[in-house]
Amino acid sequence: MDEWTNLTNTYKKRQQADVAIKIIDILLLIVSVFLLLYIFVLSQAPLLQILSIVIIVAGGTAFLIYSYITANKKALAQTTDIEKLVLLNEQGQEVLEWSLKNQTSLLIGKKTVDYQPEIDLSHTEYAALINTEHALLNCVDGIWYVEDVDSVNGVGIRKPYRHLTQKLKQENPYPIGYGDILYIANTKIIAK
């Protein structure tokens, strides 16, 4: 339960920080608009206008580079921390786990004479809804992706502390991160 409490607190703090950053961004935008109006409409000083254009271009380029680096770091931080997948029962208790260490690809499905998936869900409560080849997990550059392999009942993903589950399009890889819950039909697997 401590892990869920820590994740909840971290998520709430991030939301508060995101709101504060958005408010600061709006205030900076308003100040910038008034400053630009003064420089280009009221002052009419050519040197000041040229200097402003140079600063705007340099600042915009630096902002784009910073945004790109930050977005990549966030994506990697969310996805590379996954060490295992854990099967959850209806009460949310951990039932079974699969290590992702030293793995690059895992098939999720049901064991049959012809198919031996690495993650066998033939013993789960909703096994009747799961295809023999239901989903595929692939690790590319340290990032795990889940893909619906033409299943009948689909694959869904829910990000931590979100109420909506996103249904994946077939044969379209989707990155997964720590705390994401995968829905293989109605069977829940959490990434840890």
Automatic annotation (TrEMBL):
Residues 106-157 form the FHA domain. The chain crosses the membrane at residues 20-41, 47-69. The keyword Transmembrane applies. Keywords: Membrane, Transmembrane, Transmembrane helix. SUPFAM superfamilies: SMAD/FHA domain (SSF49879). InterPro entries: FHA_dom (IPR000253), SMAD_FHA_dom_sf (IPR008984). Gene3D superfamilies: 2.60.200.20. This is FHA domain-containing protein. It comes from Metasolibacillus meyeri.
